[in-house]
């Protein structure tokens, strides 16, 4: 169901919030849905189920603009993105169904727990030293492992996107990092997968959920500008030795949001 809520003064903050989310979302590989959901529920006071569908719809322009920008800069691995995306479509459709089967407090708690687990996973992966791949492993075996990882993380991302309206960025990034892709390819490819997942999740929620056009208009008026600038600033940035720090900062933010969602259920 699509509807338009009445204007409230606090909505005037949404373009600025949208700009920041669009800017950093496209620089970190996310569509912004992960941050839209807590903003809508914790700051605006939107019911969780409506926030999920609205968050997904507001993520679409960021995913579209950000993906195109990163594609032009050569920051997307299309083959890996397709692998994640195909599995993500299935997960997104299932997730939208799950959302309508659980209560609002349960939805917030599950989102909080999911966020904390993802943060822990990223921290552990950052601390652990990657082992060199054994030379005797065949190319066929390595390809099977790659397909397995892509399918698992892609399905999980789609499931998360459809259930929580967050675009499933965290498992996408975790999966891409596990494939040893450089940070810039991780960010660009992640946005492509986010776009695919979001399109199908929005379609499913359009049939089963509630989407607030007023909130989308205010959020996207700023987020599109941020998404346009993000890939350009990111391509000019020099990450190098700061790559590990980027992972740690992202993990800390994800964990903090998860705790807030649980506390304010």
TrEMBL record:
Transcription found in the keyword field: no
Family: Belongs to the 4-toluene sulfonate uptake permease (TSUP) (TC 2.A.102) family.
Annotated TM spans: 12-36, 42-69, 81-103, 109-127, 185-207, 213-234, 246-263
Main location per the UniProt record: membrane
Highest taxon, organism lineage: Bacteria
Keyword terms: Cell membrane, Membrane, Transmembrane, Transmembrane helix
Protein name: Probable membrane transporter protein
Bilayer topology term: Multi-pass membrane protein
Record's subcellular location: Cell membrane; Membrane
Record has Membrane as a keyword: yes
GO CC terms of this entry: plasma membrane
């Amino acid at each position: 169901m699509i509807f338009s809520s009445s204007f409230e003064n606090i909505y005037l903050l949404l373009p600025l919030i949208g700009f920041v989310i669009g800017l950093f979302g496209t620089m970190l590989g996310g569509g912004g849905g992960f941050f839209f959901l807590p903003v809508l529920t914790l700051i605006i006071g939107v019911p969780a189920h409506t926030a999920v569908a609205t968050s997904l719809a507001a993520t679409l322009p960021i995913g579209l603009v950000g993906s195109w920008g990163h594609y032009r800069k050569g920051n997307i691995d299309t083959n890996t993105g397709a692998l994640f995306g195909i599995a993500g479509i299935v997960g997104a459709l299932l997730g939208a169904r799950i959302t309508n089967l659980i209560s609002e407090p349960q939805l917030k708690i599950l989102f909080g727990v999911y966020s904390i687990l993802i943060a822990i996973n990223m921290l552990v992966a950052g601390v652990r030293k990657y082992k060199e791949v054994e030379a005797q492993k065949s190319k066929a075996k390595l390809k099977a492992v790659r397909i397995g990882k892509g399918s698992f993380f892609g399905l999980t991302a789609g499931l998360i996107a459809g259930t929580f309206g967050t675009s499933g960025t965290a498992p996408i990034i975790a999966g891409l990092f596990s494939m040893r892709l450089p940070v810039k390819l991780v960010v660009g490819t992640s946005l492509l997968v986010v776009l695919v997942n979001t399109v199908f999740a929005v379609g499913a929620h359009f049939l089963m959920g509630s989407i607030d056009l007023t909130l989308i208009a205010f959020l996207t008026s700023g987020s599109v500008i941020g998404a346009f600038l993000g890939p350009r600033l990111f391509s000019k940035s020099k990450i190098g030795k700061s790559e590990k720090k980027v992972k740690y900062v992202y993990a800390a933010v994800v964990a903090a949001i998860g705790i807030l969602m649980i506390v304010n259920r």
